Amino acid sequence: MNRYPTDQRRRDLAAIHAAKRDLAMTDDAYRDILWSVARVRSSADLDQAGRSKVLDHFRACGWKPVPKVNEWAFIDKAAPDRQPLLRKICMVCKSMKVGKAYAEGAGKRQTGVDRKLEMMDQGQLWILAGVLEHTKKSKEQAK
Asked: Domain of 100?
């Protein structure tokens, strides 16, 4: 009886659970709210309208969803000569579905220096870009 797209349902349920956590609700208080707002005892039983009502209720209680942070936003503030290489690293990481932390870990393993991408020099970035590209190709060939 799920007429709502599955990915949207997952996002809604994740937001409901994040609100529960952020509002520091006990399980009993949370279930009481689910019952009073949507007449269910579990968020899994909520339909689209119920999820919307529960999220609206949490917002009325003062909950504000935390916006998603773009971990790659620093690239736009980097020196112009470093931006193309940082963008290359970003695109390779995104294509492998890994984040900035993965790239920084790979950089540490290759250069022996524990630095954020923002602090790596041009040589370290070149090494990292090559390593990430090699890893990407290896993973693609393994498929």
From this structure: 73-142
List the helix and strand counts (H, then E) for the chain. 6, 0
pLDDT at site 1: 44
Residue 122 neighbours by CB under 8 Å, 6+ apart: 81, 82, 85
Query: What's the mean pLDDT in 38-64?
Result: 95
Total residue length of the chain: 143
Does one domain contain both 84 and 50? no
Answer whether 40's CB lies under 8 Å from 50's CB: yes
If asked whether residues 77 and 50 sit together in one domain, one would say no
* Long-range contacts (CB closer than 8 Å, 24 or more residues apart) made by 98-104: 99/71, 100/71, 100/72, 103/128, 103/132
